[in-house]
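The instructor's notes for this session suggest beginning with a concrete chain rather than abstract definitions. Hand out the sequence below and ask the class to guess, before any prediction is shown, which regions might be ordered.
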Amino acid sequence: MMAEDANRQIALSRRINTENGAAAAEAETAGRLQKALMARHAIKARDILDASSTTVFRLTGIYWQRLLEEFGLRLNHFANRGSVAVGKDKLYIKLDTDHWRIEESFPGGWKTTAQGPDVESLRRYLNEHAPRNYSSLRC
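After discussion, reveal the predicted structure:
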């Protein structure tokens, strides 16, 4: 890895935090990676590229799948799109933009009834609207 690559990786890994949907352990690992790369390539904090000048960080399907598993839902994905049946509704996720939308069936066709920009807004929506999976409570 060249210093330029390390600088880009450090800038991108700074965006891996719990506010962007990463788990606490992932955020901690990203911080350790930053420190190791800075030490190995003698990069000072002031020399790190602005993350906005690098490629945009997007969540992978793994983050979305982990969230959906909390509600007993399974993500089906192909390329940069994902879909999930949420009761009688359909959830569509654009993995390349981290945007999601819920479509509900109406007599005239499907209509978007909810949408959001990130995994945390979907978590809030599912907490209020998703059917609960209580299979672990069966006797």
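Then share the key points. Residues 51-57, 135-139 have pLDDT under 50 and may be disordered. The longest helix spans residues 24-40.
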